[in-house]
Each structure stands twice: as structure tokens, then as C-alpha cells.
Amino acid sequence: MKTAIVYSSTTGNTEQLANAIKEAAPDAYFSTADVADPSEVLSAELILLGSPAMGAEQLEDSMEEFFSGIEGQISGKTIGLFGSYDWGDGQMLSDWGERVKAAGANLKGIAKAQLAPDSQALEDAKALLN
């Protein structure tokens, strides 16, 4: 199965989740959101997207720009989300999941970490591949 992993990270926490997934799927297309190729991502059978929560529970700017650019083209795709947050319960990831579903995609799951990912969060992120 062709997999694409695209993420943004500001403190390295979401990057740790992305790297854990990449280790489990070494042949996956792997990129940061600011330079990701939308056509490469949209050609994947499984798309995994990661972002930290910013401001008032928003996607990081480069991921918001990337996701907004493909949002109208993800109907029928299988998408998993991962990310990190500092406060609350990571509502941004749940809100993002609702956007994915509203765009007609199949939400495979959400893996989240409060601040630095612990071993469970890393395993949850890798489980998005299954």
C-alpha cells in the first residue's frame, strides 16, 4: 500500500511522531508540509498528516496551507491524523478529523501526544499504518 506521511512541527514533538511512523513504513513518501508535493500525497492509498496545535487549537500554518490545498480532493481517501498539543485534550485534532470527514474522506484514526510523545503515543502513531 502506498503511504504518504506529511507533517509540520514547531518544537519537535510532532516530528517525533512522524519519524516513528516513517521507521515503521520506510518506503512511504515522507515530507514536511511546507515542501510536500500534493500530487504525490494524493496518489497514496493511505495519507497520514501531522500537526501541532497552535494558538486557539489551530493547525500549524504550513499544515493549514497544505491541507486546505488538498481538502477538496480527499473524498474517498483514507486519512490518519497525528499531532501534539500543550493544553486541554488536543481538541484541534478532533476538529481536524471532522474536517477530514466533512471532505468525504475515511478517517482511519487520530494519534496524539501531550507535549513530547511517550511510548504509548509513538505506538498509537505507528498503529495508523494498520
From TrEMBL:
Write one Gene Ontology MF term: FMN binding
Q: Which cofactor names does the annotation list? A: FMN
Cite the Flavodoxin-like domain residue spans from the record.
3-130
- Tell me which Pfam families the record gives: Flavodoxin_1 (PF00258)
Family matches, as InterPro entries: Flavodoxin/NO_synth, Flavodoxin_CS, Flavoprotein-like_sf
| Name assigned to this protein | Flavodoxin, short chain
Please report the organism this UniProt entry assigns to the protein. Answer: Treponema berlinense
